[in-house]
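**Fold tokens**
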Amino acid sequence: MNQMHPETETPATPGPVRAVLFDLDGTLIDTESQTDRAIAAVARRHGVVRFTLPPAQTRGVRWIEVAETMRRTTAIAQSAEALAGELIDEWLVSVRDAPGLPGASEACIAAAASGLRLAVVSSSPRSVIDHFVEKLGISGFVASEARIGADSVRHGKPHPEGFLLGASAVGASPGQCLVFEDSRAGLLAARAAGMRSMFITCCADEIEEKRQLATGMLTDYRRLPPGFWNALMSGTATIAGADFS
């Protein structure tokens, strides 16, 4: 029998959704451009000018992994841990006032009102998740234990650990979860966890490649059809191949 590679595994059999797991950066808030600026600023501080990394190496991954990549590709001698600390500090300065994506807050509130359980699973630190769920006005809908940050896991995306922890925190099986994600690493993590996913395209790149990894895709939360969240609960929503763009 052929074994499927984790990148091409088929998510769980369609059925009712009981929990929605949201990524944070690029999915609920618009912070991805600040990531690139933080990396360039820290590299410049260490004497490396005009430094950039491709999105696949920065989107949806933990800062410690970005730092390790920077050390491998430059002459920066700083330890990965110290460099990651610099990156986080630089990034936090620019993202504290980052806006939520259009319709994101309303979507979370509507999902919770329909009876869906919510979790936020991010490669950002837990403190950043706490800040933004407050700013988005959804802190009352995302329990403390359902906020899974980089400091909550041993393995970052594309490993499924974060999403599996999120599902466990809200008492749902992987097959009952729908993940909202914008990064390749996050979509791969959702697939590896056996979860369905909705690719958020508004802040993403490499659209065609990533749409192949997702169950459905969405450009703007405001494009979701009326009754979408209730339909997820009842199992009547069409997710596979859905294109809300």
Summary: The radius of gyration is 18 Å. The beta strands are 19-22, 117-121, 147-148, 177-181, 196-200, 216-218, 243-244.
